Amino acid sequence: MSWERGYADHLNTGILTGQVVAVDVDAPDEGVAARLTELVRSIPGGDDALCRVGRAPKALYVFRAQEPREKATTPVYIANGHRCQVEVLGSGQQFVAFGVHPETGRAYEWIGSSPLDVRLEDLPLISPADLDRLLLDAEKILSELGQPEKKPKAERHHSTGGETFWQRVNSEALAAPERWVASLFPSARREAGTGAWRVTSKELGRPLQEDISIHADGIQDFGKEQGETAINLVVEYGGAPTAKDAALWLCERLGLDPADMGWSVGATTADLIARPSRSGKEAPAAANDNKPDELDIFAWRASRFVGEPEPTEYLVSNVIETGIPVMVASMGEVGKSFALLELSRRVAFGSSKLASPIFGGQVVQEGTAVFLAGEDDARAMHRRLASLDPNGARFADKGDKLITIPMPSAVKTTKPFWRIVKGEPVETAEWRSFCDSLLKIDDLRLVTIDPLQLFAAVPLNEDPAAGQFVCASVAALAAQTKASVFIPHHMAKRAKEIMTLADARDAIRGTSALVDGVRLAYALWYAETDKARKLCKTLSVSYEPNRIVHGGVVKANGAARRILSTYARADNGLLIDRTANLGATLPEQGDLRAALVIAVEGAAADGKPFTKTGAGGLYELRERLPEELQVLSKSRLGALCEEALQRGEIVRASAKGEKVAKWLDVPTGMFAIGLGNFGVGAMR
């Protein structure tokens, strides 16, 4: 019975699939439709299935699902000029029970009973195995009666031939819909199985069923006979006044230079008709707008963290964790870039356990390393690689695991990853493009962006908000890729010599937000002249200015070995860790206290704060302290703690609901300001 003859109140009612499953036979050709109908009716319960006809001979059959399943389809076949396909509507999809076909205006009609006449338990049951066999048999029938549909793949802009600017923009947009669709249509979602982006009629402000599907082969507009283009969508639903504005917006989103795409002042829009906006929406914001990500807070209840937590994994043994943002700060010309390139080489090609330490430990991870060199051209990079890799490992099997990008040679102009828009720091299309490339690497272990300042067109050294924003971007990349992301930075010149790790931390250029925003900071600085001469003599190397360099962890959240290292510059300029050659002498008192402060800060940030004494005391839990503190007596460790308390470098804090201030933290730490949370395994 049609809705016109009794179900007018249920116009455009949708039935959600899940408990029910629908088989949609989309075969406008009568001969094909007859064969497919016979097939559906032949499966167990097929004669009792509900049948809805939209535009004969297309039909939809409804069963009760034995168990939920995803959407599945046969390929599209062309039979007698018609596109024919069989589709199983799976969990989360829906079909119209009573309504009007969007193309013909004809009513959907149920042959026999309708969904309002039949209880769910009375529908015939269909198993997943029967559905799978149905699709296989349907594809066999379609292959006998027609030819597979052949769709031209979207051409990339680097093989355009005679493509116009507009066609090239559209091709790029179809090749990467994830870069722009969600900005234009915030509710757009990927379809299960096909990967296409589906924009619903509700968001489009259209009648039911007039959706849009966006995928690599094109844009299908179910409410129109003709297809759509990406540029037209931006004009119509983004409010862009002209096709030019829409195309330039897409270029910004996709990280494309319009000039490289063939745009010129004399370009015309004769081959692309742009319709005026009918949505009333404002034009989309720039590609690097500051729109917040959608956050589902209810997906992160504490109950989701089940079982034992994952153990800490390191990139550099006991010093640098995997999957964290790391700052490496140094004085000018110390050689941090060369050292970071050597770290990248060891990660990519593997590192011997007998190799000298680097950044305080041994490299214990192996995989792809990406080194983005903002200041070195291809010739300089070649010289550095030849120096570090004289045996030619880069030409062997693992050679492709090391990716070194000399930006001055790779691009015409190095564009920033972060910049200021309307007074606020934002990510640029270049940053998003770089991140997208990294996400394609399955075994990514290390990323270096050298130097940070070149890629950050924001006031890092003056504005704490800018520093926090950049560090948050880097932290998000590290979390997504599970790679350690290094951002080299500079240390300010100091009139006073750097004597301790605390002095080195204070010398890092810029606001405290930069150091606070990363999980770990490592500093490198020159040794004072007289000390450098003595160290050269001890190490049996000839003294040269700036040959001796000190380094160490100056900030860490969580476990990290905090030891003062001494480096001697080799003839090729590489810093070689010679700490082991200096004997087992303890660092100076100032460095011990600084190491204690850093350990206290890291433990509190990790949700496992120390107390001065007792079960959670520093001495009682000394295995969690860096090696140089583990060897101290209980009284000396207590004296160091008391000195740090008197200096105000650390404080006693109380946890929520407690009256006694006994937990140790730095003055700006979460426990110190009353917001600390205890992590798993914390001593309470």
Would you mind describing this structure in some detail?
The chain is of the alpha+beta class. It has 19 helices and 31 strands. Strands 2, 3, 4, 5, 6, 7, 9, 10 and 11 form a 9-stranded mixed sheet that branches. The chain has a 9-stranded mixed sheet with strand order 20-19-23-25-18-26-27-28-29, sandwiched between helices. The chain is elongated, with a radius of gyration of 32 Å.
The chain-level mean pLDDT equals: 81
Which class best fits the helix and strand makeup? alpha+beta
Q: Approximately how much beta-strand content do the residues carry?
A: 15-25%
Tell me roughly what share of residues is in helical segments: 25-40%
The unreliable regions are 1-8, 153-161, 265-292
Approximate shape: elongated
Estimated radius of gyration: 32 Å
Which assembly state applies to the chains in this document?
single chain
Number of strands: 31
Brief digest:
The protein has 684 residues and is an alpha+beta fold. It contains 19 helices and 31 strands.
Write the layout of secondary structure elements.
Layout: E1 13-16, E2 20-26, H1 30-42, E3 50-53, E4 59-65, E5 72-73, E6 77-79, E7 82-89, E8 94-98, E9 109-111, E10 125-126, H2 128-145, E11 147-148, H3 165-175, H4 181-184, E12 189-190, E13 197-199, H5 201-204, E14 212-215, E15 218-221, H6 230-238, H7 243-254, E16 314-316, E17 320-321, E18 325-330, H8 336-349, E19 368-373, H9 378-388, E20 402-406, H10 407-410, E21 418-421, E22 424-427, H11 429-439, E23 444-450, H12 452-455, E24 456-457, H13 464-481, E25 484-490, H14 501-507, H15 512-516, E26 520-526, H16 529-539, E27 548-556, E28 565-569, E29 575-577, H17 589-605, H18 627-630, H19 634-647, E30 651-653, E31 663-665
Helix pairs in contact: 1-2, 3-7, 6-7, 17-19
